[in-house]
Design goal:
There is one protein chain. The protein is α/β, with parallel strands linked by helices. Helices cover 43% and strands 11% of the residues. The strands form 2 sheets. A 6-stranded mixed sheet has the order 7-6-5-8-9-10, with helices on both faces.
């Protein structure tokens, strides 16, 4: 768990959060008997009866078609770890605010007082009729893989674990542009990923799908390879997909001659190891607030550097992905978010700044108004191509 922050109600941070960051408002004015009878009884009964006869009408006559449930159990919150549902709620409120600001989507933060995977799955299945999509957030690995997989199989609406796939989409977009700046393709790059949790696994899989040259993933015990006897099922699958070079040993061993370092673990990497990277190296040190490789160290040894922080260039921020991905899925009436839709999102995100590339500009900023529309359009088009649009 991260360091404790002293409670200070006079600070700007606490003042912004006082009373919560969200409110619900009615889209219609209830000013007289007629408006009340249309919005509520008796008029609402006609709409309810129509939906009962034709359930698909709920998409048009309720808010569910563009409403996201932001669901967490508070077990892997930011860098704070397992802080529980109540302490996680400010993050979920923030996520809902980002959905509204960057994609115009409504969402409801829901924190669950259970860490049991079965209970979480059953609870989300039970509330799903109220929502058009499910955004899973800050659920620890490896339970997050099981929970997302079961919900994807059982629900006919998009289910998306942002800690996995949002990170992976932005990393792919950024890496493709960083490769272009250094006059290489993805297929020429050897990548080392520090972290085999939710983000590390998803980044490895999307980079493989995009045609990366080779990847070695390292956890706290070293390189993930099929010769290890301590692998979880998720890591065993990862070992079968990655490390074509057959590397073993520590992450430092993997870094020797590698082209790319992607840090999603918060484990510090010393400069001696960083110096072993190949020429024209690319470093994405994404731990927040303290990157795995200090930016000044990274710049001494890399041609392109990115972090997860907003006070440095090239911020790898999930807000570049998830609002547009859900907006595109909703525009297409998608029943799921496919792997191809994630690849399309990454491609569209990277193309937003394709004509403006520089070592300090490999992704747009979160406030670039082109981002969400570009990602949404690409995702919606791919949903149609993949046959999951309605």
């Amino acid at each position: 768990m991260g360091s404790r922050v002293l409670f200070d109600p006079s600070s700007p941070v606490f003042r912004v959060h006082e009373g919560g960051k969200l409110a619900m408002r009615s889209k219609i004015a209830l000013t007289d008997r007629e408006s009340l009878s249309l919005a509520y009884t008796p008029g609402v009964a006609q709409v309810c009866s129509a939906i009962a006869d034709e359930p698909e009408l709920a998409r048009r006559y309720t808010w569910r078609s563009r409403l996201v449930a932001v669901v967490s159990d508070g077990t892997a919150v930011l860098g704070l770890g397992n802080i529980g549902p109540a302490a996680a709620l400010p993050v979920m409120e923030g996520k809902a605010a980002l959905f509204r600001e960057f994609a115009g989507l409504d969402s409801v933060p829901i924190v669950l007082d259970t860490t049991d995977a079965d209970e979480i799955v059953h609870t989300v299945q039970a509330i799903a009729p109220s929502f058009g999509g499910i955004n899973l957030e800050d659920i620890s690995a490896p339970r997050c893989f099981d929970i997302e997989g079961r919900l994807r199989e059982s629900l006919d609406i998009p289910v998306f674990h942002d800690d996995q796939h949002g990170t992976a989409v932005v990393v792919l977009a950024a890496l493709r542009n960083a490769a272009a700046i250094t006059d290489r393709s993805l297929g020429e790059l050897r990548v080392v990923i520090s972290g085999a949790g939710a983000a590390g696994v998803a980044c490895a899989k999307i980079l493989l799908a995009a045609g990366i040259g080779d990847i070695a993933v390292a956890d706290s015990r070293g390189i993930v390879h099929s010769g290890r006897s301590d692998l979880t099922p998720v890591k065993a699958e990862l070992a079968s997909l990655t490390n074509r070079a057959g590397l073993a040993g520590s992450m430092a061993d993997a870094l020797a001659g590698a082209d790319v370092f992607v840090g999603v673990s918060a484990g510090a990497v010393d400069e001696i190891s960083v110096a072993q990277l190949a020429p024209k190296a690319i470093i994405f040190a994404l731990a927040n607030p303290t990157p795995e490789v200090a930016p000044d160290v990274a710049h001494r040894h890399a041609a392109v550097v990115a972090t997860g922080r907003s006070d440095y260039p090239n911020q790898i921020n999930n807000v570049l992905a998830f609002p547009g991905i859900f907006a595109g899925a909703f525009d297409a009436g998608a029943r799921a978010i496919t792997e191809n839709m994630k690849l399309a999102a990454a491609r569209a995100l990277g193309e937003v700044v394709a004509g403006e590339l520089a070592p300090d500009k490999i992704v747009p900023t979160p406030f670039d108004p082109r981002v969400a529309p570009a990602v949404a359009a690409a995702v919606a088009e791919q949903a149609v191509a993949d046959g999951v649009a309605s």
